[in-house]
């Protein structure tokens, strides 16, 4: 998810029974983009603001909400203003100790548990929008995208359950469960995630996946994930690998992913180079390359759909990312 920039401010109000805080943060991007999907190179701008609200009750319950607004200009001169179509992200939550209940445009338990292989950033997300990349959305968005997720953390372990309801009452909810481990093993920072989702839409639909990530003392980072989606007995597998290296202000990364199913294989790779100028300003370069066997491979449901244009396709972007 791209960052947004503008300003950061905090308003703090206290009363005898509770404390509340409102924060405003943001990010912006400017640069140039090009690729086989565009007629010619063009300018890219993107601006967004995030409002983060939080509070604490007398009994120790914490609560809050996050609202993200974004306004982006595309390379072909059109403008996408999310505030006009109700598609802005928002989440409301309440928590106590290690337990938390979130509702709204939040991740299902599958996505919550899985780690994506993209490292670093690019203003047009070229390194993570190739035909082999998996955002691990699973079955999120099968219905209206309104998800309820309960998660609980204890020591290095966390688990979550989630549901997304069909408002029409036609189908059963999408159910999900996920597990995560984050700790140190043999001197390495290690993360492991395992997620599962299912729904009955007249045919059984399910997705299961696992991811592993680690960071080394020398600045190297590695992420690998695998998932399997089954729709009525037809299965598509995906695997992805990402590596990154950070030295002082410079971050370099590369990732590769591949979908394979009946009669097709879609794959791609992405690279990113970032240089941190300090103060929230970063130079970003991104490149993505795709190779798809079929014109459009659509499999899965909701946000878990994936696709690619037939043949070899490339894209790149270069510019500045700002955060406040």
TrEMBL record:
Residues making up the signal peptide according to the UniProt record: 1-20
Annotated Porin domain residues: 7-293
Q: Does the keyword Lipid biosynthesis apply?
A: no
Under the GO molecular function aspect, what terms does this record hold? porin activity
| Any Pfam family | Porin_4
One cellular component term (GO) for this entry is: membrane
Q: Which UniProt keywords apply?
A: Signal
Does the record's keyword annotation contain Signal? yes
Q: What is this protein called?
A: Gram-negative porin
Write down the species: Antarctobacter heliothermus
